[in-house]
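hey can u check if this looks right to u? its 200 residues, i copy pasted from the old doc so theres a chance i mangled smth
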Amino acid sequence: MFLIISYFVNAQDMIVKKDGSIVKVKIVEVGDDIIKYKKFGNLDGPLYSVSKSNLTSINYENGEVEKFESSEKTVKSDDADEDSEKEEKSKSNPILEDANLKKTIEGIAKDCGEQLIRNCANGKIDNSTTEIFWDGAYKDAITHEIIVPIRASWKPKWTDGAGKWIKGKILISSNGEKKWVYQNDNGLAFSSCAKGFKLK
């Protein structure tokens, strides 16, 4: 009995708010729109409620992380325009609101894409591009890393057919260090060079 009580006393969840603040809590209930919790320092105290729209994520004591993408819950009709939904996500992304940060990320992504292509493409190439998936770019509230998903594409010179591509993420730390994380590509021939690739 003592061990069970001790476990629950030490079990600690964390809610990360959109303003960047982190609150140590014990989650009591997770509803469709509302999270109910008790403050970790006062488990016998009052029950608090917070809207999911005010949160970035919940970090559970067992290591699981639940992230909340949109700032408010929307009901999508059957004939809803997907472009307007993407536009709404872009508007709520603080990275896109900072013009200087966005320009810096574009430069880092282009450089990363060029390095990837030089590392993985054999011979001369045509039409190389680096695409940034802005709807998936975000700043981690705990590590403060900026995560930027990209896809580097190219077409081998003097060949017909589809081009080649590699998809992954760039992790940019708060002190400017950059790290590449491989996700997938359009052929097994690139897996080894893309997985072992390190940004300069």
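The first strand starts at residue 13 and ends at 17.
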